[in-house]
Specification:
Elements lengths: L6 H6 L8 H41 L7 H12 L2 H10 L1 H13 L15 H25 L3 E5 L7 H31 L4 H14 L9 H21 L3 H17 L13 E5 L4 H4 L9 H16 L8
Antiparallel strand pairs: 1-2
Helix pairs in contact: 2-3, 2-4, 2-5, 2-7, 4-7, 5-7, 6-10, 6-12, 7-8, 7-10, 8-9, 9-10, 9-12
């Protein structure tokens, strides 16, 4: 069985982080919201002219709409989901990576190595994670298709959006790394240095899931599956001895389902090569408006993946 003792946890044990696990959780959420709002500045500034023009046009047609908060919130969300602003949001997550590293280095006095950002074997582990991310999410979508819950068809117009797809790929490479650095490189490893390694994995996975609470179509199944993904990623990092493989898995999981297979990524639709259409009304199979991540097939694949990580024979030199 996987040995949860990690050199990253050992290095983090010497940090200046609070001794209390509870206090570390509080500090993380304060830090996370600071990161979240910092990442939101650029896309909000870019989208503000469109939001103001659309809001003004609606207000002129509907003079009594000054208090229609729900409409304006919906309007803002729809505008922010336009490709140019979504791509800006993905690229802006680089800010989160930088701020998490600065926090760990300056406040907790931790090294990059303690965050899993190690050079040794990084290229090979990233490449392996790159293809594993594609395989995992593809297996889920294909299970949905085989069950009759969804069908796939080629998007005949995808070549006209190939430039956007490339930008999405770069954006998801940045975004996947950012979330892993924040939730695992920073939070999980900080907790791992202060207490039970299993607790560190579970708490950071739960925080990761809760961070998606306000995504469109969020359900209890989505909540549970995102916890499973967090556990999978945390255990994968411990087994790999660094964070690079998990970054690649996360990035390609999102890019493959959104821009290759045409599935909503945590409730968000993007331009894609293939279009995957839901046929069944059973949201347990399809995931509903949240997408495949809220499907029972994701539960099956991630549970199987976690068991493999836990019980596959482990090389003693992995750390």
């Amino acid at each position: 069985m996987l040995n949860l003792k990690s050199t990253m946890f050992e290095e983090s044990a010497n940090s200046k982080a609070p001794k209390s696990v509870v206090l570390n959780i509080i500090v993380f959420f304060v830090t996370f919201f600071a990161i979240y709002y910092s990442e939101s500045i650029i896309p909000m500034v870019l989208s503000m002219p469109d939001i103001l023009i659309s809001s003004l046009g609606y207000s002129m047609k509907n003079p009594d709409s000054a208090t229609d908060v729900d409409f304006f919130m919906k309007l803002s969300t729809e505008i922010m989901m336009q490709p140019k602003y979504m791509i800006a949001s993905l690229f802006s997550t680089a800010i989160g990576t930088v701020l998490a590293i600065v926090y760990c280095n300056s406040i907790e006095k931790r090294s990059l190595s303690s965050m899993g950002l190690k050079k040794e074997g990084s290229v090979g582990k990233y490449i392996r994670g790159f293809f594993l991310g594609i395989i995992l999410i593809s297996a889920i979508i294909f299970m949905q298709v085989l069950s009759g819950a969804c069908k796939m068809s080629l998007n005949s117009n995808f070549m006209s959006g190939i430039g956007l797809i490339v930008l999405y790929l770069i954006g998801f490479l940045i975004q996947g790394m950012s979330e892993e650095v924040i939730f695992r490189g920073y939070f999980m490893n900080t907790l791992g240095g202060r207490g039970n390694p299993l607790c560190a994995v579970l708490v950071s996975a739960t925080a990761f899931s809760l961070a998606h609470t306000f995504n469109p179509g969020f359900t209890l199944v989505a909540l549970f599956n995102l916890v499973l993904f967090g556990v999978f990623a945390g255990l994968y990092i411990i087994r790999d001895g660094n964070i690079w493989g998990a970054c690649a898995i996360h990035s390609m999981w999102n890019f493959t389902q959104g821009n290759l297979l045409g599935v909503q990524v945590s409730g968000t639709q993007t331009v894609s090569v293939i279009q995957t259409q839901q046929l069944s009304q059973n949201t347990l199979l399809t995931g509903g408006t949240f997408g495949a991540e809220a499907s029972i097939f994701t539960t099956i694949v991630l549970t199987f993946g976690i068991l493999i990580i836990l019980f596959l024979p482990q090389k003693k030199t992995v750390q």
